[in-house]
Amino acid sequence: MSALSNSPTAVLRFPYTASLAIVCWVSICTLAAVAALLGGMAIVILLLAAGLGLVVWRRPEETLGAGLLFLFAAQILLPFSARFNADSNDMSQMYYWAVGLLIITIPAVIHMGLRRVFDVPLSAKVFLGVAFASAVYAAAQGAATSYVVRQFYGILILIVYLGIALHMGKEELLLRRARTFGVLCALCFVVYYLAVFGRYGFHRETGTNGAQASTLAILLVIAGMNARKVSWVLSALVILLVPALLFMRRDLVAFLVALPIALAVKSRTWKLRLAYGCLSVLIALPGIFPQVAQSVGDQLKEMPIIGDVIPATTQDATSLYERVVQAQIALDEVRTHPWLGEGLGSSFQWDSPIQGFVESGYVDSGWAYLFQKMGLLGAGTFLWLLVTVFTGASRKTAGLTACLSSAALITMFSEPVFFHFTTAPFLGTYAGLLLANKDRRPKPAVVLRQKVS
Questions:
Q1: What pLDDT, on a 0 to 100 scale, did the predictor assign at position 7?
Q2: pLDDT score of 116 more than 80
Q3: How confident is the model at residue 4 (pLDDT cuts 50, 70, 90)?
Q4: For a designed S-S bond to 293, which of 13, 54, 286, 302 qualifies (C-beta 3.0 to 4.6 A apart)?
């Protein structure tokens, strides 16, 4: 027996640490329950962020799990008031989410240093530079400062989390945290859903927690299938309850599209890759083309039980038609402001098939958002960044590759997931982990040939 095991301090350390962790989590759950009943959830969210910030200060490698799962938990524990009404402008809870994310991220940046955080591929640096120029341009044109800061913050946090994941990220650690705390957040969401079910029944909500959950579920289910761990797959399905219960079509389609993409990446023959690629395209159609989505919705409406359960807003493709209109208007804007668009923080006007004439600083379609806010330079540098990231794709990174691919092909059509601060850290993390895998690949051996005299 080693000297360590004979030490009374060593014997007592582990039970003490476990007991302290149990006390902390019981306290957090109790505070959350009391705040949910009596108010004060914003304070609980900031206290949670402060606690996670201390964890990151002591163990910087926990940054990715802490930041991502904090955002997931915050949107469940402190959902914004406009989630039931898209016309409402009361989204003040987002400020608490943003501040909490900063509290968690700053200790990691201090540990790493700015030089290392921004030691990222040239395409990422150029994209961030274009975003900054676009923000300055919008501010000079009189755009609201709050919108300029918020929209630039989303892209900044994308690149920061890419840098953190690239240099300090551990995919296995992130998956372990998602299995534990992601499932806990999903179960909290089920409790919340049951609490409001009597009033709203089966319903939809506005938010990005479905996209967050979908990406975590993709990583977990593919990792579980690779390792043949049923518990990981079950954890992914529990997390997927969030977009499923909210009938978030785009996030469920993104999850389903990711599975054949992962199989295509892992396949060794071009025939299998082609077959899985065709399958992913077939699954993607309802998430991209309004006519296909409408046809599927009409068929679901005719089913006896399903047609009564699914909300009417999910049974039609009106939202997809609106995204198409937004994309067309954004392309028209590029003709008048080709290089930087109208700038990050600028307002966007379109004739909505649902609401009539709309003027907003936010654009639902991610591609319309990119062209309208950052013009051709923004779109070009973003595509350059995507190409750079996907050079890290390999059979070992099937989960990360599938997750980023489905986000770019499906989710981006419906929301700017790469640019909004509630989802950008997720995709920045996955991009950084993908690039880190590329850097860790074994270099081919160099064979030296001796000249035969």
A1: 46
A2: yes
A3: very low
A4: 286
Q: In the numeric block, which tokens belong to residue 47? A: 């206290």
Instruction: Provide the 10 A C-beta neighbour count for residue 183.
Output: 19
Residues 6+ apart with CB under 8 A from 404: 386, 389, 390, 427, 430, 431, 434
- The pair of structure tokens assigned to 193 is 């859903």
Give the total residue count for the chain: 453
Q: Return the pLDDT at 341.
A: 93
Buried b (16+ CB within 10 A) or exposed e, 265-280: bbbeeeeebeebbebb
| Beta pairing, strands 356-360 & 348-352 | antiparallel
Handedness of CA 315, 321, 323, 324 (dihedral sign): positive
Handedness of CA 104, 110, 116, 119 (dihedral sign): positive
Token couple for 353: 């098939």
Q: How far is CA 227 from CA 69, 216, 392, 433, 435, in A?
A: 23, 16, 21, 19, 22
CA Rg, the chain, in Å? 23
Mean pLDDT of the region 246-266: 94
Compute the average pLDDT of residues 287-291. Answer: 74
Helices (H), 207-356: 209-227, 230-239, 241-245, 249-266, 270-288, 290-302, 306-309, 312-315, 318-336
Asked whether the predicted pLDDT for residue 423 surpasses 70, the reply is yes
Does the pLDDT at position 141 exceed 80? yes
Please, which residues have CB within 8 angstroms of residue 295's CB and are 6 or more apart in sequence? none
**Cα gap 184→275, rounded to integer Å:** 37
Structure tokens at 205: 């909500």
Are 227 and 87 in contact by the 8 Å Cβ rule? The answer is no
Over residues 42-83, the pLDDT tens digits come to 898 999 999 999 999 999 999 999 999 999 999 999 887 777
**Bridge partners, residue 359, by sequence:** 349
**pLDDT reported for residue 290:** 72
Contact predicate 365/326, CB 8 Å: yes
Element (H, E) at 65: helix 63-77
Residue 28 pLDDT > 80: no
